[in-house]
Automatic annotation (TrEMBL):
EC number in record: 6.3.5.3, 3.5.1.2
Subcellular location: Cytoplasm
Protein's UniProt name: Phosphoribosylformylglycinamidine synthase subunit PurQ
Organism per entry: Acuticoccus sediminis
GO molecular function annotation: ATP binding; glutaminase activity; phosphoribosylformylglycinamidine synthase activity
Upper taxonomic lineage: Bacteria, Pseudomonadati, Pseudomonadota, Alphaproteobacteria, Hyphomicrobiales
GO annotations of cellular component type: cytoplasm
InterPro entries: Class_I_gatase-like, PRibForGlyAmidine_synth_PurQ
UniProt keyword terms in alphabetical order: ATP-binding, Cytoplasm, Glutamine amidotransferase, Hydrolase, Ligase, Nucleotide-binding, Purine biosynthesis
Amino acid sequence: MKSAVIVFPGSNREPDAARAIRLAGGDDPVMVWHTDTELPPVDLVMIPGGFAHGDYLRAGAIAARSPIMRAVADYAARGGYVLGVCNGFQVLTEARLLPGALMRNACLTFVCRKIRLKVENTNAFTRDYERGAVVTYPCAHHDGNYRADDETIARLEGEGRVALRYVDNPNGSANDIAGIVNETGNVLGMMPHPENAVEPLLGSTDGLPLFTGMVASVASGDSPELPRRPLLDRLIHRNVSPGA
Ligand SMILES: NC(=O)CC[C@H](N)C(=O)O
């Protein structure tokens, strides 16, 4: 699997992202700087954690307007897989590739600890987990409180787009939402850090199946479990994804 990891000034988890991708069997990712205007030919784009532009204005707001994000939006619109973790999730909501917003944690403090999550739905990203499995990942954020209007939350729930839910909600997120996918199921954003739970030395290997699942989805060319993916999208994806 060929992948790109997007790097902004203030990103800090790009080496962890690269390591997780490699451990799952992917090629060494290409690091892409935020001022670039094009993506290399890849099967997956990952937006890593950190504090892009120091979280000024709102976490992810400046990064979402970076030149590279136009290319990421085009890539996602063509059906390419995009994973945003923590600050990456914030960037994806600010870029409107995912609905809703990540607000200040309800406790008003930075939360940095291991948390338990329930895998709510198996999709192109979570296919290597049993549905309903409870996994442990670390989380480390001050703006992880997922919020959206009632209609959006109802849609996310009704369409099976809540991928991960907190068992012990650390930040006040609506409906305990920890991760969601877009309408076509090819963009996943999540606050906890699966890339920091990929080897025993880190205290958990529970994050590794997320990465092996993405490698498997790329290898199979598509995932039959993508929720309501329009036929046209699937065809376009086959044509543009080198891994398809
Ligand atoms: N670990 C991270 O990606 C931090 C996310 C974000 N900047 C926050 O603290 O809310």
